[in-house]
Specification:
Elements: E1 4-10, E2 16-23, H1 24-27, H2 33-46, H3 106-122, E3 126-129, H4 140-149, E4 155-158, H5 165-170, E5 177-179, H6 186-191, E6 194-198, H7 199-210
Parallel strand pairs: 1-3, 3-6, 4-5, 4-6
Antiparallel strand pairs: 1-2
Length: 213
């Protein structure tokens, strides 16, 4: 890891309790809008199912017989009721199933995450807490009160936990979400106004960068 920075650590009541080191390799990276755009666009594209479809003339049922004689009707000649010109006929040049996946290498994803995290630090939107203290059962009210005390009602919350209590306590909060350090990516970070992380989550996240994932 490179040089270290320091950030204030707060408890869930918003009171400052100590300071903790941040790696400049993770939280002190220069802005790279082009890389962020490419990576976030790839994340969004890879979620698209690509199952949209319309029926072409060949797919529409019926139409085996010429609908009316060639001449003498005063109408334009027609060879099939499946023509795109007829009601219920096929669609010309309509959408068809396709794969929207875009490939981005792991290194680019990691750098993009560091760029997004560093942007939160520059704008004072990174908040480190000592412990979320969710124990026993999920409590949405507990997390809501904590985020209010931290002045970060709209936030992405990170914590390294063996249980899912924090995730279940956060999932019904409008404008907030919880994700594990091993799963967070640049799109997650940019989607939320604030980034709230526990000390254990911070350690896990910085170790993830040491491992190159």
């Amino acid at each position: 890891m490179g040089t270290q920075m320091e950030i204030q650590v707060k408890d869930i009541s918003g009171k400052a309790v100590k300071k903790v080191a941040l790696s400049s390799d993770v939280f002190g990276v220069e802005m790279n809008e082009h890389l962020l755009h490419l990576v976030v666009k790839a994340y969004q594209a890879n979620r698209r199912q690509g199952t949209h479809a319309t029926k072409t003339k060949a797919m529409v049922a019926g139409g085996g017989k010429k609908p009316f004689k060639q001449k003498g009707t005063g109408e334009a000649r027609q060879g099939s009721s499946r023509s795109p010109l007829n009601p219920g006929g096929g669609v010309s040049h309509g959408p068809q199933p396709r794969d929207y996946n875009e490939k981005v290498n792991a290194r680019s994803k990691q750098v993009a995450l560091a760029v997004a995290l560093s942007d939160k630090v520059r704008h004072n939107r990174l908040i480190v807490v000592d412990d979320f203290k969710v124990a026993g059962k999920p409590s949405t009210k507990h997390v809501v009160n904590a985020l209010k005390a931290l002045k970060a009602e709209k936030a992405l919350v990170l914590d390294e936990r063996k249980d899912d209590l924090l995730f279940r306590s956060t999932r019904n909060i409008h404008g907030a979400a919880c994700v594990a350090p091993a799963e967070v990516n640049a799109e997650h970070v940019l989607r939320y106004e604030n980034f709230v992380i526990s000390i254990t989550g911070l350690d896990a996240l910085q170790q993830r960068f040491q491992g190159g994932k």
